[in-house]
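Reviewers of the previous submission asked for a worked example of the structure-prediction workflow described in the proposal, so we include one complete record here. The input consisted solely of the amino acid sequence. No template or homolog information was supplied to the procedure at any stage.
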Amino acid sequence: MRITWLGHSGFRIAIEGAVLLVDPWLTGNPMFPAHRRSAALDGATHVLLTHAHGDHAADAAAIAAEKGIPVACIHEVSEWLNATGACQTMGFGKGGTLDLNGAKVTMVHACHSASIDFTGKGLLPAGSAAGFMIAGEGHVVYVSGDTDIMADMGWMGELHNPDIGILSCGGHYTMDMERAAWAARRYFQFRTIIPCHYRTFPILAQSADALRAGLPAGVTVIEPQVLEPIHL
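From that input alone, the workflow returned the following structure tokens.
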């Protein structure tokens, strides 16, 4: 399995027969080198969206149309995308599981707002925010999406038992590094944590030192570099 950061909360996850683009915000992303766009999208099989905020979803329809691949997302966002006719969608809901070329992707809850801002009509409601449990190749990856700590993490950790956590933990809009470390200690048994939703803007955390300091021995924190694959 290869996990590649696209900056902010965007990831390219190659697992089983799938290449999943999770929240691939590239246009205007200060962390992403625009001249590397083709490399980021090469071989992609699906787009996954945690929610419709622009720093996650603004490029989703264009990427999906360009590559001829579907966008998998919560039902209401899929309906918005279907209404535009811009791309194929796979709408599903929390607790639902999709088999994406052998990777099993289950939508789970996240505690965050959800609105759509690529309609030209201002902010409109768009379902609710979500995360994903992605299972394959002997691993389960928890993509938290934008979230704070929530009690649901208890059953999510027990039921899905993820060994890899991709956690939004830059603070201000999501849980910060200290809160993410607390959640990881309390609810999960991660072997590897990859932070995201940080470093993009000055208001967000610029390092994961506080996350690393708050975790028990044996948990590895990998601070990703844009377009440098992490092999797990």
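The first helix runs from residue 37 to 41. We consider this example representative of the routine output the project will generate in years two and three.
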